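Posting here for the record, re: magnesium ion.
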Amino acid sequence: MSLDIVILAAGQGTRMKSRLPKVLHPLAGKPLVLYSVQEATSVCQRSPVLVIGHGGDAVKQAVGEAARFVEQPEQLGTGHAVLQARDLLAGQGQYVIVFYADMPLLQASTLHKLYEAQQSNSGPFSMLTVVTENTRGFGRIVRDTQGDFCAIVEEVQATPEQLAIREVNPGVYCFDADWLWSRLDQLPLSPKGEYYLTDLGAIAVGEKATIKAIPMDDPDEALGINTRVHLAEAETMLRHRVNEQLMLSGVTIIDPAATYIEPTVQVGQDSIILPNTHLRGSTVIGQECTIGPNTVIEDSTIGDRCVVTASFLESATMEDDVDMGPFGHLRKGAYLESHVHMGNFGEIKNSRLRRGVKMGHFSYLGDADVGEESNIGAGTITCNYDGRNKHKTIVGQHVFIGSDTMLVAPVTLGDEARTGAGSVVTHDVPPGTLVYGVPAHLPNSASDKKQEG
Ligand code: UD1
Ligand code: MG
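Prediction output follows.
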């Protein structure tokens, strides 16, 4: 493989007005820089080289093993930034793609096209361009009367005629490696005191070389993030892209503008996503589900034919035919087997509700295991925390927990046990028995029997 990729991420991102380095600002849940690293990785077998500087340690930490790093100690411009990779890459790949880490919408397929274009170009580099009314401060592509490439002129240095040009530089180039490494030293100092990578254009033209400047099919891919306004624009475009792909694959999204699905999420056919639903991280939703409105699901797995209404789920699992909400909260380790029904105002953490369990109203289950077909009465609470440690509650099959029961853990209720309304259960309950009262006890006196009746 004779391609290397260099991604520039050393700039401060002054226009973001932030303490966080620009490339670490989150877009659809993950730092900007990871988008470019991911696209680069799918085009090139060798991991991309990331030029870091401002906030370098934090950027390194966010990217981890996915890239190789070189440091640009002082930010002296995009040409100077690429120069920092020369020691590592000179004599390696035959081609070098360079692009900027602030372009999260750029697609691998576009990088690939550029790479192919340069492979058939006798000149030293090919680059992408964008034809757009929204020039956003980008450098202008100056062409001669034949339409051949002449130069890239930065907006601040452009003449009024050049400013009127609608073809601009998104900042994605594929170079002949030897040419690149030998010409970087020749870059002139710009009036701003920087070495611009874009001045390689004029150097190549001076050598009478052919530059391929190829307009991009989808100008949206060229969106470079310089301000938080651009960040929000990118978020909207990315959301649109993700939602459109899902709809084309058979998912109904009632209002795509108000549905927030991260690119990592999977949704099965014939599921319906209602407005103001946020699906995040490693979430997988099965087929024929109805999710939302007003629902947040993070890193969770949902089976087929589930209904989740106005609820919040984090790191939870749901098998098929489960329904929950409105206003339910599944926390880490909640596992609902098939046909579980969880009504309003329930909270479940680190607990398994086995097949067919019903928990209709106002309950909290933590560190519990509830057997098949058991019924959790309204207001049931597992008292799982004694101030120091968490303890387990085990409930057998076909158990009937009366309303407002407190299960003081550790405690076990056998199969078909029952608790009366308002019981505080502090001891294990044998199978098939009823307990009630505070603390809960077996019916053992005449008056108790009368009460039970
Ligand atoms: C650059 C281009 C401009 C193009 C625009 C597209 C140059 C001189 N100009 O301008 O033609 O239209 O991008 O978005 O290249 N960086 C470093 N080290 C530095 C300076 C920058 O690593 O010393 C990195 C930044 O982190 C960023 C990228 O290079 O990821 C581009 O820098 P930025 O300051 O955003 O350049 P623009 O002014 O947008
Ligand atoms: Mg920029």
